[in-house]
Amino acid sequence: MFDAKLRPLIDPPLNRLGSALARRGVTANAITFLGLALGLAGAAAISVGYFSAGLGLILANRLLDGLDGAVARANGPTVLGGYFDIVADFAFYVSVPLGFGLVDPANTQAALVLVASFVLTGVSFLAYAVIAAERGARTDAHGRKSFFYSTGLAEGGETIAVFIAFALFPAWFVPLAYAYAALCVLTVFQRSALAIVQFSD
């Protein structure tokens, strides 16, 4: 919901740093995999109760997630890079609820519901992207991407805000997880309604 509005603020400094790294031979894929490793380490830290360390690693993951795109823009984006980026994103997104589900059995059901909602949101996102690409649709609302990014109520910015809240207030994980899962499901309905409008012919 807020991602497109945040891009003009975060892209310029990321692009400057990305260009500098690209000139030194750093590849976008290397940053993607490093970011994934840090994100998974953050989920692992959370799973054993190290919430502050987990939060720091989550934030590092998100910084590198933005930086890999900046390096890709400097070097020229690739289809393979886009593939690795989206796979790494979803692996990270499901790992964090899993970490909270493991650290406390009372969180398990809410964590499962949240992961299921992420799967539904991801499926709707990717299905929309495939059909939009087949129809030649283009958008720069989320910056230059290797495939079509559709807007929704629950996007990356909202997800990270919720993850931060989880780490800062772990006792509130269950209600926050259920609330965000509901927003993810609403996003699926929103995207489906948009698909009806755009793809019915």
Strand content: under 5%
Give the averaged pLDDT, no decimals. Answer: 87
What overall geometry do the principal axes of the alpha carbons give? flat
Query: What's the total number of strands?
Result: 0
Q: Distance between termini?
A: 27 Å
The number of distinct helices, counting runs of at least 4 residues, comes to 7
Written as H for each helix and E for each strand, in order along the chain, the element string is HHHHHHH
Largest sheet: none
User: How large, in whole angstroms, is the Cα Rg?
Assistant: 17 Å
| Helix vs. strand class | mainly alpha
Helicity range: over 70%
Residue windows where pLDDT falls under 50 for at least 5 positions: none
Structural summary, described in words:
It is a single chain. The protein is an all-alpha fold. The chain is about 80% helix and about 0% strand. It has 7 helices and no strands. Helix 2 runs parallel beside helix 4 and helix 6 runs antiparallel to helix 7. It is flat. The relative contact order is 0.14.
Which key phrases capture this entry?
single chain; flat; mainly alpha; 201 residues
Briefly, what is this?
With 201 residues, the chain is mainly α.
